[in-house]
Amino acid sequence: MRVMAQMSMVMNLDKCIGCHTCSVTCKQAWTNRAGTEYVWFNNVETRPGQGYPRQYEDQEKWRGGWEVGRHGQLRLKAGGRLKKLLTIFSSPVQPQLGDYYEPWTYDYQTLVDAPLGDDFPVARPKSLITGEDTKITWSANWDDNLGGAAQMGELDPIIAKLRADASAEANAKIKFEYEQTFMFYLPRICEHCLNPACMASCPSGAIYKREEDGIVLVDQDRCRGWRQCITGCPYKKIYFNHKSGKAEKCTFCYPRVEVGLPTVCSETCVGRLRYLGLVLYDADRVTEVAATADDQALYAKQLEIMLDPSDPEVIAAARAQGIPDDWMESARRSPVYALAKRFKVALPLHPEYRTLPMVWYVPPLSPVVDLLKDQGHDAEAAGSLFGAIHELRIPVEYLAELFTAGDTAEIERVLNRLAAMRSYMRDVSLGRDPDASIPAFVGMGEEEVYDMYRLLAIAKYEERYVIPTAHHEDAHNLEEMACSLDFDEGPGMYESGAFGEASGVPTPVAVETFHALRDRQTADTAASSESLRGRVNLLNWDGNGRPEGLFPAKEKS
Amino acid sequence: MSTVLWGVLPYLALALLIGGTIWRYRYDKFGWTTRSSQLYESRLLRIGSPLFHFGALVVVVGHVVGLLIPESWTEKLGISEHMYHGNALFWGTIAGICTLVGLGILIYRRRTTGPVFMATTTNDKVMYVVLTSALCLGLWTTALAISAGSEAANYRETVSPWFRSLFYLNPDVDAMAAAPVQFHIHALVGLLLFAIWPFTRLVHAFTAPLHYLFRPYIVYRSRDARPHAGARAARPGWQPIGTHDRERGAR
Question: Long-range contacts: A130-133, Cβ < 8 Å, 24+?
Answer without folding.
Answer: A130/B114, A130/B115, A130/B118, A131/B118, A131/B243, A131/B246, A131/B247, A132/B114
